[in-house]
Design goal:
The structure holds two protein chains of two kinds. In chain A, about 40% of the residues lie in helices and about 20% in strands. By secondary structure, chain A is α/β, with parallel strands linked by helices. In chain A, β1 (about 1-5), α1 (about 10-20) and β2 form a beta-alpha-beta unit. The relative contact order of chain A is 0.12. By secondary structure, chain B is α+β, with helices and mostly antiparallel strands. Chain B is about 50% helix and about 15% strand. A five-stranded antiparallel sheet of chain B has the order 2-1-5-4-3, with helices on one face. A five-stranded mixed sheet of chain B has the order 7-9-10-12-11. In chain B, α1 packs antiparallel against α3 (about 100-110), α5 (about 245-295) packs antiparallel against α6 (about 300-335) and α6 packs parallel to α10 (about 455-465). The longest helix of chain B has about 50 residues, at about 5-55. Chain B is rod-shaped and about 160 Å long. The chains are: A alpha/beta, B alpha+beta. The interface of A and B includes residues 18, 31, 32, 82 and 99 of A.
Chain lengths: ~220, ~500
């Protein structure tokens, strides 16, 4: 899943990037409102973490401009804790509002919920045949037995399973599981898919040649 | 109840009304009584004058010594009346059956003072005493009296129910004319009852009316009270409706409203300040929490831990400086900003600030130019240096690359002046009035690396104010800004006194 962090506080941004990378997200970052808006409107992020007090263009403005173009889930992460601010944020098109200082555990849970719901999935446990994917603790089981996936592999499985029944193109996969700083090779997706098939069964992911991949529900 | 305005009004009203009604009744009563007595007195006096006239025709011996053997049919003196001082020179008894003298006739007939108003009236009585106190004549005959005497020619007196007139007659005689006034006073008593009844009625109606009026009068006050009671911290924007009020209460309402407006402003300022302060503190705290949480999430390499600790240290430093700034402002607000007032030269302070800021200026390629004349004032050197560095570092930070910062110090009238002029981007006129407000940022979210906490200029303002000086800003977009601070010079005695009294114990050492 690809996340954009728009936050001007260097130290905090660094911690956010590190934490999300470690959780398997592909992370883009932006130090000010203008850059953040450009990135947010030019990519289909799975979720955007947006600060309000930003140099250049404040968060309210970024949100307003973004909502004219995209439905991307937005979590406002700000030090402004007043109720009117929360209302303004949520009514302005944000999907969630978290006040600093925050706990990473909570932030991760909220991000997962946002991603899940934007994919039309209410539960954090998704099963396809004998394979069960738990998006809350990021585990995959086959026939009740735990299967170990790398972070990238899990991210790919999660992307496909949240969009179950939809064809996911290779470009989309690149967009969602690799961040802007990841050095990507053109055949990396194929490698990951083949590894997943080895672990979860060849029929789990179908290939539509020349188009992309799909998990059939 | 005693504290109730309405009750107090009512009590005062009752007291005043009772006084007025009571006073009126008393005046009426006594006037009426007076006029009654005047009537009686006039009657008595006319009777007395007739007697006096009769006595003047009486032989002098009788008047002086009394009747030795008064004629039985002409005198009603009781036979058993004691003879008090028998006079050896008394005249022989008058011959019997002689025609009565005119004075005898006058004395025999009761004086014409039967009141024509009717039988109700008691007849008058009279008595005549000789010069030596002997009763010469009395009507009716059973008239009993001690000896009358008076020093005044005419004296009216009230004895029991009788009104009496005592008159000095010819040759030392004393004439007493009296009348029972009970019938007259019956009317008077009736009047008193009527007055009392009317008075109580008026009082009762007045009190009820007063109670109603006072209720009406304090109703708007109650309205104000109800509105004021509704207003608390959560709805300070509410105002008392003064439209329908009378002028006096409207004034009160307007005063309360303007007070509420000030209160609301102060309250909102306070809320904003607290929100800003907590916001400023939240950022370093989030950094602290985020990094420690991240470091603790799994085991890390030593360099990772070092990086985390360094970050936490930075966040701590930032909180420390913010807390210190807030503390300075809080002290300044409480008037407890401790200043060590000594003669200081602003030009030396400018030089010191330049030394401190030269590296930053060089880093940003800004030329720092000092044009300083000696400008001595009485001030706290450390605090003034804080102001100077703040202004100059702002001038450097918001300057363009290759720009200049001019620092000028001079003496102007009673002030020592320092000017900091930059060639930066300038400040929009709409932002100028707010420049010295706490947490105000020209660009709300200017990167905090350069923007600091937003308290710098507010602190400068507080420090300069504590010095009884002024700080002003002028600016032109794309040309630059000028900050000017003026501090009163040493020789101002007024400043010495006022600062010493305002700031308590101070290190005022020299003039």
């Amino acid at each position: 899943m690809r996340v954009l962090i728009v936050e001007d506080e260097v130290d905090l941004r660094r911690a956010l990037v590190q934490s999300l990378c470690e959780a398997g997200y592909a992370v883009d970052q932006s130090p000010d409102g203008n850059d953040g808006l450009v990135k947010a409107t030019s990519w289909d992020y799975d979720v955007i973490i947006l600060d309000i007090m930003l140099p250049g263009r404040n968060g309210w403005d970024v949100l307003e401009k973004l909502r004219r173009e995209k439905q991307t889930p937005v979590l406002i992460l700000t030090a402004r804790d007043a109720v009117p601010d929360r209302i303004r944020g949520l009514d302005g098109g944000a999907d969630d509002y978290l006040v600093k200082p925050f706990s990473f555990v909570e932030l991760h849970a909220r991000l997962r919920a946002l991603i899940r719901r934007s994919a039309g999935q209410a539960s954090s446990i998704i099963d396809v045949g004998d394979i069960v994917v738990n998006t809350a603790n990021r585990t995959v089981t086959k026939n009740g037995e735990s299967v170990t996936l790398t972070a990238r592999e899990y991210a790919l499985v999660e992307l496909l399973i949240l969009n179950r029944g939809k064809l996911i193109s290779r470009t989309m996969i690149y967009d969602h599981i690799f961040g802007e700083d990841d050095a990507t090779l053109s055949n990396l997706v194929d490698v990951h898919v083949s590894n997943i098939r080895k672990k979860l069964g060849a029929e789990f992911i179908c290939t539509r040649r020349g188009q992309g991949y799909i998990i059939d529900g | 109840m005693a504290k109730s305005l309405r009750w107090r009004l009512q009590i005062w009203h009752a007291a005043i009304l009772s006084l007025v009604v009571g006073g009126f009744a008393a005046v009426v009563y006594f006037q009426f009584r007076r006029s009654l007595l005047d009537e009686v007195d006039a009657e008595l006096l006319s009777g007395a004058r007739i007697l006096e006239g009769a006595l003047r025709t009486m032989p002098g011996e009788i008047l002086e010594h009394g009747f030795g053997n008064p004629p039985p049919n002409s005198f009603d003196n009781r036979p058993d009346r004691p003879e008090r001082s028998p006079n050896p020179r008394r005249l022989p008894p008058a011959p019997m059956r002689r025609p009565p003298e005119p004075w005898e006739q006058a004395l025999r007939l009761p004086p014409p003072m039967i009141d024509p108003r009717g039988p109700r009236d008691q007849p008058a009585y009279f008595a005549v005493f000789s010069g030596n106190g002997q009763l010469l004549k009395a009507v009716p005959a059973d008239f009993k009296s001690p000896r009358y005497s008076t020093r005044q020619p005419i004296e009216f007196r009230v004895v029991e129910f009788r009104r009496e007139l005592v008159l000095q007659g010819p040759r030392g005689t004393t004439i007493v004319v009296g009348k029972d006034v009970r019938p007259h006073f019956d009317g008077l008593n009736w009047l008193a009852v009527q007055l009392a009844a009317t008075g109580f009625c008026v009082l009762g109606v007045g009190l009820i009316g007063g109670w109603w009026l006072s209720g009406r009068a304090i109703r708007p006050i109650q309205q104000i009270h109800e509105t004021a009671a509704r207003i608390d911290a959560s709805n300070l924007s509410e105002r008392i409706d003064t439209e329908s009020m009378d002028r006096e209460l409207k004034d009160l309402g307007s005063i309360l409203n303007s007070m509420l407006a000030r209160l609301q402003q102060a309250f909102e300022q306070q809320v904003r300040f607290t929100a800003d302060a907590s916001h400023e503190l939240r950022t370093p705290i989030s950094v602290l929490i985020a990094h420690t949480e991240l470091a603790l999430a799994r085991s890390r390499s030593t360099s990772d831990y070092q990086a985390t600790i360094a970050t936490c240290h930075r966040a701590g430093e930032r909180m420390k400086s913010l807390v210190e700034d807030l503390l300075i402002l809080a002290r300044a607000d409480a008037g407890k900003l401790e200043l060590r007032l000594l003669p200081v030269d602003l030009s030396k302070i400018a030089e010191e600030a330049r030394q401190m800021l030269r590296p930053i200026a060089e880093q940003r390629s800004v030329e720092l130019i000092l044009d300083c004349l000696p400008a001595e004032c009485l001030g706290d050197a450390d605090r003034l240096l804080q102001v100077a560095t703040n202004l100059i570092s702002n001038a450097i930070q918001y300057n363009r690359s290759g720009g200049q910062v001019h620092v000028t110090t001079l003496v102007s009238g009673p002030h020592a002046v320092m000017q900091v002029r930059d060639t930066g981007v300038g400040i929009a006129p709409s932002n100028l009035p707010h420049l010295f407000e706490r947490f105000y940022r020209v660009d709300e979210a200017r990167s905090r690396d350069s923007g600091g906490s937003g308290l710098g200029l507010a602190i400068c303002h507080s420090i300069v104010e504590a010095h009884h000086g002024t700080i002003t800003a002028a600016s032109e977009i794309d040309v630059g800004s000028v900050f000017e601070l003026r501090i009163p010079r040493c020789r101002s005695q007024v400043f010495l006194i006022s600062s010493a009294s305002n700031f308590g114990q101070k290190d005022v050492s020299a003039v």
